[in-house]
Structures are given as structure tokens and as C-alpha cells.
Write a structure and sequence with these properties.
Elements lengths: L2 E3 L5 E3 L3 H14 L8 H13 L5 H11 L4 H10 L2
Antiparallel strand pairs: 1-2
Amino acid sequence: MAKKMNERGAKKPTVNIEYASKFVTKVKARFERAHQHHVYPLFLRILNSYRENKRSLDDVIRDVNFLFEGHDDLIDDFTNFLP
């Protein structure tokens, strides 16, 4: 997997953009229902906090596993989504 430099000079792996886009769309569609509409925006905030180096990858994995509890397919897909 290719790597790119982040602001701190450390290398972060890049992800397949097409796979990432499809995965994020799948998450959005899964949680469109009224009682679950908060999940998708929270998922995006978690990812963004990692992108901004405000959260470790371990924290992201833990939080997303909790957020997607009961949705094993999304948890499996998230593992493939990770950089």
C-alpha cells in the first residue's frame, strides 16, 4: 500500500479511493433511518479526527467497532477500509 507524508512528517498509508467511497456510501445508506441518523455523521467525525491527527488509529478502531455494533459486515468492511 502506498504511503504519503502527513504534517508531522510520518508516513500514513493511502487507501483505495473507490473502495473508500463505496464503503462510506454503504455506511450512509445503512444508517439513514430516523432512529439511527446520528451514526453516519458521528462516523465521519471519527474519521476526520484521525485525519487531523487528533485520534489514534487504535482509538478509531475501538470507536467504530462500538458504533457499528451489531453490523458485523460493516466492521469487516471497515477493516479493509483502514489505511
